[in-house]
Each structure stands twice: as C-alpha cells, then as structure tokens.
Amino acid sequence: MQHHEEMYEVNPFKPKEGSMVDELAVIVAILVGWGLLNFGFQALLSLLAESATGDGMLTRLTFLSFPFHFWFTGQFLPLWFVVLCVIFNLYTDRVTERHSHRRDRTYE
C-alpha cells in the first residue's frame, strides 16, 4: 500500500525529475500565454480609456467592420485558445515521446 501511494504522488510545486518537469513547464507557459492576452488586453483597454465610459483608442478602431476590442475579445481570444491547445498538444507529445525514448533507450 505504501509503495502504491508513492508511485502516484503528484505535486505541481515539486515535480519529479524527467517528463513531469517538462510537462509542468509547458503547462505554465500555456497558462501565462492565456492569462497575458485575456487579462492584459482588458488592462490595456482600461489604461487607454479616455473617459469614464471606457471610450478610447482601442474602442474607436475597427477591424473587419467590428470595433477592435469587440473583435479581439469575441473572435481572436477564442481562436487564441484553440492555438494554445494545439501548441500544448504538440509539446506534450514531443515531451512524452522524448522521455519514452529515454526510458526505452531507443534513441541510441
């Protein structure tokens, strides 16, 4: 029972060496990329607001006939999420493949 619990112990703040460190690095990078655009754009809108109603340079710009802030939030951010998912899967596949080769020693 003791050995079974140690085998599946996962702590994201203290990852085990090997694939878990690389997987955690990918997860943190993806979360930073997601949070930066989601919250950063809202902060930028707030910083560039020229009036109390929120009107500013980014709300006056248009892109594809939409106000830029509307297009960015309504179309670009969902697309960004899909792009991050693809990047996450590609890197996770590479990390898994690299570490499985190391375990099997098939890379030699």
From TrEMBL:
<dbReference type="Pfam" id="PF13937">
    <property type="entry name" value="DUF4212"/>
</dbReference>
<feature type="transmembrane region" description="Helical">
    <location>
        <begin position="68"/>
        <end position="92"/>
    </location>
</feature>
<keyword id="KW-1133">Transmembrane helix</keyword>
<protein>
    <submittedName>
        <fullName>DUF4212 domain-containing protein</fullName>
    </submittedName>
</protein>
<dbReference type="InterPro" id="IPR019886">
    <property type="entry name" value="Na_symporter_ssu"/>
</dbReference>
<feature type="transmembrane region" description="Helical">
    <location>
        <begin position="24"/>
        <end position="48"/>
    </location>
</feature>
<keyword id="KW-0812">Transmembrane</keyword>
<feature type="domain" description="Sodium symporter small subunit">
    <location>
        <begin position="20"/>
        <end position="100"/>
    </location>
</feature>
<keyword id="KW-0472">Membrane</keyword>
